């Protein structure tokens, strides 16, 4: 059944401006430099998400090297994946103050440092700090800007652009699995991590490509979006409360904040003009004072936007569908991560190593994942198709595969299920699109930071939980069953909340009629 964005309570915040005059869009929106942003994001996904999905190779090396339990060893991979996503809300603060470009460059250096320091690990706990925390924070500082920048540069082809950029995860998983296998065989796992650290420095180049849009460009994009959504916004007139929670209520405090900032800069300029007749030392002091004042204003403005998104009157948490989206994210991601971490061990248990060496199951997931993201992105961009419905159908397919995987004990059966997992998990490319539809472009960085933070918590506890269940039962079956059931709970929340959101305005209008 087709459900429009209005039916599930989507709101468009400040984008909902009916009757605005058409404005000539910036050529870099949906074209021009926007495709360089897609390339940058694509390479980020290869180097970060692709490497993390190939950690099953290193996990086996760490098991042999340190002789620790599977549950404890799995924490290394989980910390790296989890922290990459958990730090999302705090990276949103960095983006608000420093911009995507500077945040990504600093993150690239941290990520490379984490890989290189991990090459000298003497125990698993050392890896917790170097690889899990250091490399994880660095990855998060690059990953969120890569997603946000694509959302800023695209309007009409958002799903396709996000799909193309996030296919880097699939390509990266395939390439990094082969690369880490080769490096570990030829040079050992320590030298492999050192080399991977050097390769990760290319993340700084990706960050340098993230040229920021001017505020004028962003406003033009909002006008184009509001023009294309004009019919939809008329249908949203009954949902005033939801729209207010999306940032409209926060406009007045923001105006006051901007006025205060302008007053500070104005006073600095007045002092500077008055001191031009002074000595060179005084002028140097004034320039330094002006620089510090401008930096202070930037930090205050960024922190105000970040704070209002989480705790202010326009808090994102007042949007009930968005809250349901967070609950779904808490359960969903572990169901995708667990197979990548533990599939090599499952293959070994079923004596399928010979077939898996010819064509690894994780590579099957990765390759089909590429096509899944692009195809689902193209389908979602069709005018007659609801992105929300595509997103839900892909989730249902994935949870079915997770529950079915333990029943497959042949290579062909596992390969078929892995292919379906790879295709259906292509919905990851739709997550930024769904998030932007829920909260608007202005709050995308902070909102998506919350979503990937929830995903990070899921990734953090999922693989160690699966390893812990195996240590008790000597089977991975129950790990997949429990993860699948929790995933289903998250999907049910996504189904229930939009129905409640849609029903409440009708009940309210009925009550008013009775009065």
UniProtKB/TrEMBL annotation:
PROSITE patterns: MFS. InterPro entries: MFS (IPR011701), MFS_dom (IPR020846), MFS_trans_sf (IPR036259), Proton-linked_MCT (IPR050327). Residues 221-233 have a biased composition (Basic and acidic residues). It is a multi-pass membrane protein. Keywords: Membrane, Transmembrane, Transmembrane helix. It is found in: Membrane. The chain crosses the membrane at residues 33-55, 75-95, 102-120, 126-148, 160-180, 192-210, 321-341, 361-379, 386-405, 411-434, 446-466, 478-496. Residues 221-241 are annotated as: Disordered. Its main location: membrane. Pfam families: MFS_1. One of its GO terms (cellular component) is membrane. GO terms for molecular function: monocarboxylic acid transmembrane transporter activity. Residues 37-502 form the Major facilitator superfamily (MFS) profile domain. This is MOT14 protein.
């Amino acid at each position: 059944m087709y459900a429009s964005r209005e039916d599930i309570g989507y709101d468009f915040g400040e984008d909902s401006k009916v009757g605005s005059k058409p404005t000539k869009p910036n050529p870099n929106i949906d074209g021009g430099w926007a495709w360089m942003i897609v390339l940058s994001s694509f390479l980020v996904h290869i180097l970060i998400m692709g490497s993390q999905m190939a950690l099953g190779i290193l996990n086996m090396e760490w098991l042999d090297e340190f002789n620790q339990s599977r549950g404890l060893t799995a924490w290394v991979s989980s910390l790296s994946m989890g922290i990459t996503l958990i730090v999302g809300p705090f990276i949103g603060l960095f983006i608000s103050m420093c911009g995507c470009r500077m945040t990504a460059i600093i993150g690239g250096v941290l990520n490379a440092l984490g890989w290189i320091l991990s090459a000298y690990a003497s125990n698993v706990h050392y890896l917790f700090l170097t690889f899990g925390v250091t490399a994880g924070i660095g990855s998060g500082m690059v990953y969120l800007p890569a997603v946000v920048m694509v959302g800023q540069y695209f309007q009409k082809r958002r799903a396709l652009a996000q799909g193309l950029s996030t296919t880097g995860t699939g390509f990266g998983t395939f390439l990094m699995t082969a690369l880490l296998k080769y490096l570990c065989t030829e040079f050992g796992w320590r030298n492999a991590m050192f080399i991977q650290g050097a390769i990760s420095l290319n993340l700084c180049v990706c960050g340098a490509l993230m040229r920021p849009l001017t505020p004028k460009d962003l406003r033009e994009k909002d006008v184009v979006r509001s023009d294309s959504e004009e019919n939809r916004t008329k249908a949203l007139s009954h949902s005033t409360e939801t729209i207010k929670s999306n940032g409209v209520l926060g406009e007045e405090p923001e105006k006051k904040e901007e006025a205060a900032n302008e007053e500070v800069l104005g006073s600095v300029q007045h002092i500077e003009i008055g001191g031009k007749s002074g000595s060179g030392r005084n002028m140097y002091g004034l320039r330094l004072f002006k620089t510090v004042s401008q930096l202070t204003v930037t930090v205050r403005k960024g922190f105000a936007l970040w704070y209002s998104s989480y705790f202010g009157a326009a808090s994102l948490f007042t949007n009930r569908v968005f809250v349901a989206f967070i609950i779904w994210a808490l359960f969903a991601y572990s169901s995708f991560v667990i197979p990548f971490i533990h599939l090599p061990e499952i293959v070994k248990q079923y004596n399928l190593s010979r077939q898996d060496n010819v064509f690894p199951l994780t590579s099957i997931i990765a390759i089909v994942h590429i096509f899944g993201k692009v195809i689902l992105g193209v389908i979602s961009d069709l005018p007659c198709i609801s992105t929300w419905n595509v997103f839900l159908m892909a989730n249902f397919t994935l949870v079915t595969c997770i529950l079915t995987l333990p029943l497959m004990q042949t290579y062909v059966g596992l390969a078929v299920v892995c292919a379906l997992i790879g295709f259906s998990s292509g919905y990851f490319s739709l997550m930024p699109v769904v998030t932007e539809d829920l909260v608007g472009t202005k709050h995308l960085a902070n909102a998506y930071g919350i979503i990937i933070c929830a995903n990070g918590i899921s990734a953090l506890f999922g693989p160690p939980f699966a390893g812990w269940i195996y240590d008790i039962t000597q089977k991975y079956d129950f790990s997949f069953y429990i993860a699948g059931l929790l995933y289903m709970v998250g999907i049910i929340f996504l189904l229930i909340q939009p129905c409640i959101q849609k029903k409440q305005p009708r009940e309210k209008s009925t009550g008013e009629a009775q009065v």
